[in-house]
Amino acid sequence: MQMICSLKRHLDYLFLKAQALALLALGQQARALCRFDRMLVLLPMDRYALASRAHVLAQLNRLDDAVASLQQLTHVTGTPAQQAAAWFNLGYVLQQNGRHEEAGPAFEKAAEHHPCMDRAWYGLALVLIHQGRLHEARRALKKTTQLQPMSPYGWYRLAEVSLALGEPEKARQVIEHLRQFEPRVAAQLERDIGLSVHLQAHNQQGSTCDAAG
């Protein structure tokens, strides 16, 4: 009898999953969400259902509910990669919800489970920038660029942080580096901060001359 009940639960789960996927393909997130809820009644700590439910809730802009599902997911045993993904997604949704103080530790946990997850380091850097912790943000961004050297996003932010720290020459070096493989992004970065880089460098040179005089 127990085996029959277990088999029925498994078949019901698969049927609900198929329905949810079909509904998502049709753009009917709210109806798909009901299926994920019913899947979790059958298997309360199922990784797939929790992650999918959180994703749909985020699409529906129900961010607090998405956070709650992801918090549950982080307590489900999984591989380091699965745990890292759960913590990263939690950090991302918290960040989108303006809950930066909570997002930072979530990104740190993601990086702890999977140190080579460049997205976790980048997310952490954005939190640190928001908090004004620019030296720590620069360290996180350098980690990001080491792990994903051909992605322009980490370099772009690194140039902005270097400029904010009053180091225009380092920002200029980043622009020149980007120009080698992302000339369009380098040009955009130059337009966005190029004048500031020039002015800061000019001011620093002027200060040096004044000191020398």
How many DSSP-defined strands? Answer: 0
Q: Give a short account of the largest sheet.
A: none
Q: What are the segments in which pLDDT stays under 50 over at least 5 consecutive residues?
A: none
The SSE string, one letter per element, is: HHHHHHHHHHH
Number of helices, counting only DSSP H or I runs of 4 residues or more: 11
Structural class: mainly alpha
Q: Give the radius of gyration.
A: 23 Å
Assess the beta-strand content as a share of residues. under 5%
Q: N-to-C terminal Cα separation, in Å?
A: 94 Å
Shape descriptor reads elongated
What's this, in brief?
The protein is mainly alpha-helical and 213 residues long.
What are the salient characteristics of this protein?
single chain; 213 residues; mainly alpha; 11 helices; 0% strand
Give an account of the 3D structure:
By secondary structure, this protein is mainly α. The chain contains 11 helices and no strands. Helix 5 packs parallel to helix 7 (118-130), helix 7 (118-130) packs antiparallel against helix 8 (134-147) and helix 9 (152-164) packs parallel to helix 11. The longest helix is centred in the last third of the chain and has 30 residues, at 183-212. The N and C termini lie far apart (94 Å). The mean pLDDT is 91.
